[in-house]
From TrEMBL, chains A, B:
<protein>
    <submittedName>
        <fullName>Adenylate cyclase</fullName>
        <ecNumber>4.6.1.1</ecNumber>
    </submittedName>
</protein>
<dbReference type="GO" id="GO:0004016">
    <property type="term" value="F:adenylate cyclase activity"/>
</dbReference>
<keyword id="KW-0456">Lyase</keyword>
<dbReference type="InterPro" id="IPR023577">
    <property type="entry name" value="CYTH_domain"/>
</dbReference>
<dbReference type="InterPro" id="IPR012042">
    <property type="entry name" value="NeuTTM/CthTTM-like"/>
</dbReference>
<feature type="domain" description="CYTH">
    <location>
        <begin position="2"/>
        <end position="148"/>
    </location>
</feature>
<dbReference type="InterPro" id="IPR033469">
    <property type="entry name" value="CYTH-like_dom_sf"/>
</dbReference>
<dbReference type="Pfam" id="PF01928">
    <property type="entry name" value="CYTH"/>
</dbReference>
<feature type="active site" description="Proton acceptor">
    <location>
        <position position="30"/>
    </location>
</feature>
Length: 155, 155
């Protein structure tokens, strides 16, 4: 179990692309998505499938990750809720930290979000100019909520 | 992933006890319980904690089991739905098969159920006299449903 401290933001321009890697494709679906718990299966280009349970909500959540066989992930998809989420994740360095920029595809385009994992909840961070409004505490931007309810409001 | 073919019955007397082992204590809780999917964490005396996902319903279900650290199981219990289920499971041989007799504790007592895992859905089986009404297709006897809705009807 890891305690995850993450802040999430809208992305308001393409200026991050000059600093980013080529990105990896992610396909993920939710088996549960409710207040206090999501159960997600993620397929990421070049990696084993991962079953992830997240507890709690907001800035600080419990995260439990287990590698599972790809065949299990394939079979579990039949039980998914709502919409399967497809996106490309790019990594952008920010000093000693890394920003994950998610470019959503399909029904969620043109949404682009940025997440920063912090070593502590009160860790100070100077944000680049392409980072927009913070949505860490807005449950509509949780990918589990998006799978059920659709795209959140635009930037 | 295993395909599980199981029939479930009420137990109508204590005659099975002469044939049974001493049993093992089971404590389990549900993180999801809906039509087509349950997500369960089971702690069983002397074994590692197991995260189990079951898909489908009725006689034949998909079952996905992953050992997880005990500390993860402890932390995940905070997100459980409904009632934590405690029971003692006894094994009773039946020819080449094994009957699992579950004696429920707490709010589900005095419920006692028997499950038989079959090699095929049409596998013939001669049932002992202490086996009562079949409840395989009654969703109220699924332990995930019981965690949410309470004890099912008595035998």
């Amino acid at each position: 179990m890891a305690q995850e401290i993450e802040r999430k933001f809208h992305v308001t321009s393409d200026d991050w692309r000059a600093l980013a890697d080529a990105g990896t494709r992610i396909r993920q679906f939710y088996l549960a998505s409710r207040e206090g718990l999501t159960v997600r299966v993620r397929r990421r280009e070049g990696r084993p499938a991962v079953l992830t349970l997240k507890t709690g909500s907001g800035l600080s959540r419990g995260e439990f990750e287990y590698d599972i066989p790809d065949a299990d992930a394939d079979a579990l998809e039949a039980a998914h809720l709502g919409t399967v989420i497809e996106k490309r994740r790019h990594l952008v360095p920010l000093g000693s930290l890394t920003i994950e920029v998610d470019v959503f595809a399909g029904p969620f385009a043109p949404l682009v979000t940025a997440e920063i994992e912090l070593p502590a909840a009160d860790h100070a961070v100077t944000l680049p100019s392409w980072i927009g409004r913070e949505v860490t505490d807005d449950p509509r931007y949780g990918n589990g909520a998006m799978a059920l309810a659709g795209a959140p409001p635009p930037a």
